[in-house]
Q: What sequence folds into this?
């Protein structure tokens, strides 16, 4: 593996929601881990005294996992979130196992099927489309 | 630009089976007469493509009123976008087993309901 395989993600550490890659078939399928800890700053506010991993951040973790399947050096943004479901609360101490599968690509768009599990139990799922773009390009 | 002469577009509530037949046979020879074999299978594909648009793109009734030649993308038509195209590519793969590999092919194939149906037929997947 060499250097940190997560470094291929363009996100800074402050907004990285994937901790480790467990398995990868480049371009096809990847399994990654996100450890949820009480130290996560967003859990201090969501919610005070009752920490709960926000669903939108689970989606972000899934999108980042999917991004690991894009060609090295890609810069991609979310283009679509479909069929997102949040089945169980994710709380500090949970180790979220996220599996992404590349379904199809067309031009700069890539669609993935995502599933997140804790201890083998599904906690969330979604279909996500990522659009490969250019950093700084905020056009339509 | 639009095929307003298409019989199926009449708003008389008669847009069930007869509508689709007429749309597929182009000139709308009238109900009751079974179209030639080849035409029949083409009209069947057209109907399935229309159903695909309705369900995958959540167009529902709007898909029924869409002309076979109406542009799906760009101005003067349905104005679908690239994410819709991706949805259609997946839908066509699931429904007909046809694969659209690249953007250039997608632009040609996804131009209208008719071009999609012709592509499906050319792949022998109808």
A:
């Amino acid at each position: 593996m060499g250097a940190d395989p997560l470094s291929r993600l363009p996100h800074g550490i402050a907004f990285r929601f994937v901790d480790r890659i467990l398995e990868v078939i480049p371009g096809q399928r990847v399994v990654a881990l996100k450890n949820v800890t009480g130290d996560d700053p967003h859990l201090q506010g969501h919610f005070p005294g009752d920490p709960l991993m926000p669903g939108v951040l689970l989606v972000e973790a899934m999108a980042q996992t999917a991004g690991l399947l894009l060609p090295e050096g890609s810069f991609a943004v979310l283009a679509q979130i479909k069929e997102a479901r949040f089945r169980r609360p994710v709380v500090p101490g949970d180790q979220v196992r996220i599996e992404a599968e590349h379904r199809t690509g067309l031009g700069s768009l890539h669609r993935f099927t995502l599933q997140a599990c804790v201890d083998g139990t599904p906690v969330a799922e979604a279909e996500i489309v990522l659009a490969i773009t250019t950093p700084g390009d905020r056009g339509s | 630009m639009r095929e307003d002469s298409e019989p199926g577009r009449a708003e008389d509530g008669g847009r069930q089976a007869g509508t689709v037949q007429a749309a597929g046979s182009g000139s709308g020879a009238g109900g009751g007469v079974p179209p030639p074999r080849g035409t029949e299978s083409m009209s069947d594909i057209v109907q399935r493509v229309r159903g695909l648009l309705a369900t995958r793109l959540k167009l529902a009734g709007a898909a029924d009123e869409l002309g076979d030649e109406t542009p799906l993308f760009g101005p003067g038509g349905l104005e679908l976008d690239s994410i819709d195209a991706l949805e259609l590519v997946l839908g066509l793969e699931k429904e007909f087993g046809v694969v659209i590999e690249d953007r250039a092919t997608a632009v040609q194939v996804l131009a209208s309901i008719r071009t999609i149906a012709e592509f499906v037929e050319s792949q022998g997947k109808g």
